[in-house]
């Protein structure tokens, strides 16, 4: 029931399918890639909290999971925390993340940051690798 209430069409369809297919409503999900962020996403669904909201890499991975499984509240929260972490070194990574996973707020603020600090950003390794 908790997963059903996540505002995620993915989890709603799984819950509906599980209830039709078996009496216990149990459905097993295979998680091949990124099992730690997947567990953290489930933890967020159950608790409403992100375990370490100042861990850049964790937030990045959680945003990817939230986008993949359509957990919009988590995606928006991750965007919000990542916006606060934009800097010269990670701005290229964040704009690519935002564009890839349709993170509109993150895209907007990262693009503005890049515009303001373009002279410094062009000298970063991330920019050179584009």
UniProtKB/TrEMBL annotation:
Domain of life (superkingdom): Eukaryota
SUPFAM superfamilies referenced in this protein's UniProt entry, alphabetically: POZ domain (SSF54695)
Pfam families assigned to the protein according to its UniProt record, in alphabetical order: BTB
InterPro entries named among the record's database cross-references: BTB/POZ_dom, SKP1/BTB/POZ_sf
Database matches in Gene3D superfamilies: Potassium Channel Kv1.1, Chain A (3.30.710.10)
Domain BTB as annotated: residue spans: 5-84
Protein name: TD and POZ domain-containing protein 5
